[in-house]
Design goal:
Elements: H1 2-104, H2 126-132, E1 157-160, E2 175-177, E3 180-184, E4 207-213, E5 221-230, E6 235-241, E7 244-251, H3 254-268, H4 279-283, H5 288-295, E8 310-313, E9 329-330
Helix pairs in contact: 1-2
Biased composition (Polar residues): 119-141, 343-357
Region (Disordered): 1-152, 314-357
GO cellular component, one term: nucleus
């Protein structure tokens, strides 16, 4: 029994002896692991800081680009007027110069070339002065601005959604176009240049509806009705929120109106986002199908600065999911339906799959 007691004592002594070394080894391992984790934390912190700076830089670039788009849309209306004045002045000056040249001499003026460049030339006549003048002056004495030639807008044929029409060729409304619901196409104001430009027409009475974040409830969205009113000198772009029926937002441009909505929606959600917005996108003017529907309105072809654009209507589907009929393309241009007009009526049921579009 005494032998067993001694063995137990030795076991206790050994366990206590070993337990004295184990915590020290574990402490050293934990210390090394803590140093490694500290180094990893510093690396991750530096990487996070670089990423934040990168995100902030990208946000600034995005705001600059959106602001440029906004300024371009604001100046687009005045650009079209200035361009027409410049072109008319240049044409009148060119016609005066050509008439003066014809009255003075029947032979065209040839430029000296080769060795004749060093010879003394004769004093030019007043008619030659007019022809050789590089800058064309206006009646006000100003030199017209040189504008970069833009690519013609009607080169590209855009594919558009098929929209059903009635017997008169008018589109049946309301109709869903993407995320927008077209409520009204309005009436084209062709006798005032501020109601259109080369790319878009802004009809008075145009109205679409779409969903977007609420400006008073950070946890929900609401429906917004975007309308165009007659502001006299130009169109007024109006936005009415369904949850704020008595507080419309009115601006001189579509971008200005929607920027106000985006700013309020971001502020109530405490978002550090850009408040810029593309008015043509939010109002639907950049949507090809809506552009064709507006171009097909009466008097659209009378808008002198607007460039008629080409569209191709996609073939509609019948109830079985197959394409039926044929759909043509074309610019329309005030014809009240363009390529999408049917011979008499349109039908979408499966009983008349051969109806031409």
């Amino acid at each position: 029994m005494s032998q067993n007691h001694s063995q137990i004592s030795r076991g206790r002594h050994t366990t206590s002896h070993e337990s004295g070394f184990v915590p020290q080894e574990r402490y050293q391992k934990l210390k090394r692991r803590a140093r490694d984790m500290q180094g990893d934390l510093e690396k991750v912190t530096k990487e996070l800081e670089r990423s934040r700076k990168r995100i902030k830089s990208l946000k600034r670039q995005k705001e600059l680009l959106l602001d440029r788009i906004s300024h371009y849309e604001d100046s687009e209306m005045t650009d079209s007027d200035e361009k027409s004045v410049d072109l008319s002045s240049a044409e009148s000056s060119d016609s005066e110069a050509s008439s003066a040249q014809r009255s003075t001499s029947g032979r065209p003026i040839k430029k000296p070339r080769g060795r004749n460049l060093n010879k003394k030339s004769m004093n030019p006549t007043p008619a030659n002065n007019i022809v050789n003048t590089i800058q064309v002056t206006q009646s006000s004495g100003k030199v017209p601005k040189k504008r970069a030639s833009k690519r013609p807008l009607n080169e590209k044929v855009m594919k558009v959604q098929y929209v059903e029409q009635d017997e008169d060729g008018s589109y049946k409304l309301p109709v869903q176009i993407g995320i927008l619901t077209v409520l009204s196409l309005g009436n084209v104001v062709y006798d005032r240049d501020t109601f259109h430009n080369e790319r878009y027409i802004w009809p008075v009475g145009y109205a679409v509806k779409r969903a977007y974040n609420s400006m008073i409830n950070p946890d929900s969205q609401t429906m917004y009705v975007c309308k165009i009113d007659d502001g006299g000198e130009g169109p007024k772009f109006v936005i009415e929120a369904e949850d704020q029926p008595n507080k419309p937002i009115v601006a001189n441009t579509a971008t200005g109106a929607w920027t106000s909505v985006v700013r309020e929606a971001n502020a109530i959600r405490q978002r550090d986002h850009s408040n810029s917005a593309s008015g043509p996108d939010y109002f639907g003017f950049s949507q090809a199908t809506i552009r064709k529907m507006i171009q097909d309105l009466p008097n659209a072809s009378k808008c002198k600065n607007y460039v008629i654009q080409s569209f191709e209507v996609m073939k509609p589907r019948n109830s079985g999911g197959r394409r039926r009929g044929t759909a043509g393309g074309g610019g329309g241009g005030g014809g009240g339906g363009g390529a999408a007009r049917t011979n008499g009526k349109n039908s979408t049921d499966s009983q008349s799959p051969d109806t031409s579009i």
